[in-house]
Amino acid sequence: MFIHAVTGCDTTSRIFGIGKKTAFQKFVKGDPVLQSFANAFTVPNQTPEVIDDLGSQVMAVLFGGKCTDSLATMRYNIFSKRVVSASSPVTPERLPPTESATKLHCRRAYYQIMVWMGKEGGIGARRFRGPGMGPRSTSHREVLASVRKAARLPRSANMKGPAHPVSRSVFPLPVTRPGG
């Protein structure tokens, strides 16, 4: 569960350049940081600070550092090495994530594991909520109904652009009405 949630699943983001196979191999070889992190992620009511600290350590290990390495220092060192040896520009996605990105990623992974274990009610979900986190407040049917309703609104005289701005901004592909 832990490896699946941390390396990316339907509800958590994927770590660029770190696949499930790499993480799983490190986990199976008995990496103590990954083992402790996996154990901590199965315990309900962990504080965000514990999850944040362990998440930074795991991310450092996954990117080839030690658990005591800072992600900011690792980003700088990796960037410096790649700039010196690269013939093309260094892209940010090839660097370890920032501390804040790691914090949110690990909190999402923890929340997802608690959902899978059926213990999401006991984690103090408000402490872990951020963008894209926490239970849905509306169902997908309610969202679709509101989009359809907005698409039927008459076009105002001062609007520029397509006749159905909601359909163009929410959906990148053209949306047609049934029978039309």
Task: Give a brief description.
This protein is an all-alpha fold. It contains 9 helices and no strands.
**Uncertain segments:** 131-137, 163-173
Structural class: mainly alpha
Distance between the termini: 46 Å
| Coarse shape | globular
- The percent range for helix content is 40-55%
Percent in strands: under 5%
Region (Disordered): 155-180
Detailed description of the structure:
The protein is mainly alpha-helical and 180 residues long. It folds into 2 domains: 2-128, no CATH class; 140-170, no CATH class. It is built from 9 helices and no strands. The chain is globular and about 55 Å long. The N and C termini lie far apart (46 Å). Residues 155-180 are annotated as: Disordered.
Question: Which helices and strands appear, and what pairs or packs with what?
Answer:
Blueprint lengths: L1 H6 L12 H9 L3 H9 L7 H15 L8 H15 L13 H19 L7 H4 L11 H12 L13 H6 L10
Helix pairs in contact: 3-4, 4-6
Keywords:
mainly alpha, 9 helices
